């Protein structure tokens, strides 16, 4: 049986606006095996932009 850290790893989401701002979250590897992409607020750019998972 897989442990919790293997199934839900901690991932960093980096802003695509080029500001270098990151969010830290967890993802379910079973439901989202590919890289995660979320639209979130970037306080440096002061607008909503796409954040992509970095490895």
Automatic annotation (TrEMBL):
Domain of life: Bacteria
Protein's UniProt keywords contain Ribonucleoprotein: yes
GO biological process entries: translation
A GO term, aspect molecular function: structural constituent of ribosome
Keywords: Ribonucleoprotein, Ribosomal protein
InterPro entries per the UniProt record, alphabetical: Ribosomal_bL33, Ribosomal_bL33_CS, Ribosomal_bL33_sf, Ribosomal_zn-bd
GO cellular component: cytosolic large ribosomal subunit
HAMAP family: Ribosomal_bL33
Family recorded in the similarity comment: Belongs to the bacterial ribosomal protein bL33 family.
Protein name, entry field: Large ribosomal subunit protein bL33
Species of provenance: Auraticoccus cholistanensis
Lineage summary: Bacteria, Bacillati, Actinomycetota, Actinomycetes, Propionibacteriales
Annotated gene: rpmG
